[in-house]
Amino acid sequence: AGGAGVNAACRRALGVVAWQLGPQLNVPVAKASSGARSDFIAAGRGLGNPGADSTVEVRRHRAVTVQGITEVVEVTSRADLPFETEVGLHLAGDGAPIWLVKSGVESEAFLPVEPSATGLSWRDDWHHTDVSFDPPATALVLGSSGEASVATFRVVVAPCQTASVVATVRASRVRESNFDADAGAAHVALTGISVEALAARRAWPVTA
User: How far apart, in whole angstroms, are the C-alpha atoms of residue 39 and residue 22?
Assistant: First the structure.
């Protein structure tokens, strides 16, 4: 969707994040979101035991953090034998302003990408976006203006075991805006406040 991505300080820092396991498309099974966390479950077709019933489960956990997200992909095998496959991650950011993001415009022209000690990064006039991987990527192809970057991870999964890949995205501001909204709760004293809630039948006095 055009409005999807990681937005920080009225800019889209990350517009493309897509995982791929093995040679075939994963089959979605279930998904759920609560607060800052989302979970996705899929079947890894083409891996594990042959047959109609999949023996490979793919779980994707997404957690929203300060100025970014952390994504964990877990590949669990119930197959009879170990298997080796590749986990691919497509990433890109365009730095689009929030008014353009809200209109539903999808990312098309991506920001230039540079490799880093822990993964890759890109920047615009407002943000510097870092992406780190654990474990390090086996291969890394840097994207261009119209192509997302691709990080590839080679994993070996034994029977009844789980292999995981973690990607952490963090966007840091490189300049101040005219309407900075940094947290200021620590500077506000809330002691000694009395709140009284009244209902039609009962009253519950609450003191903080």
Answer: 20
Q: How far apart are CA 66 and CA 78, in angstroms?
A: 36
Which pLDDT band holds residue 201 (cuts at 50, 70, 90)? low
Q: Judge whether residue 206 has pLDDT over 60.
A: no
Helix spans in 5-97 (H): none
**Helices H / strands E in the chain, number of each:** 1, 16
Judged on CB neighbours under 10 Å (0-12, 13-18, 19+), 66 is exposed
For 140-197, write each residue's pLDDT tens digit. Answer: 999 988 899 999 999 999 999 999 999 999 999 887 766 666 666 667 666 767 777 6
The 10 Å Cβ neighbour count of residue 198 is: 8
Query: How many other C-beta atoms lie within 10 A of the C-beta of residue 45?
Result: 16
Tell me phi and psi for residue 54, to 5 degrees: -70, 140
**What predicted TM-score, i.e. pTM, was given to this entire model?**
0.79
Q: Given this model, what pLDDT does residue 179 score?
A: 61
Q: Which among 71, 61, 74 has a CA at the least distance from the CA of 6?
A: 71
Nearest-angstrom CA–CA distance, 163 and 75: 5
Rounded Cα distance, 52 and 69, in Å:
35
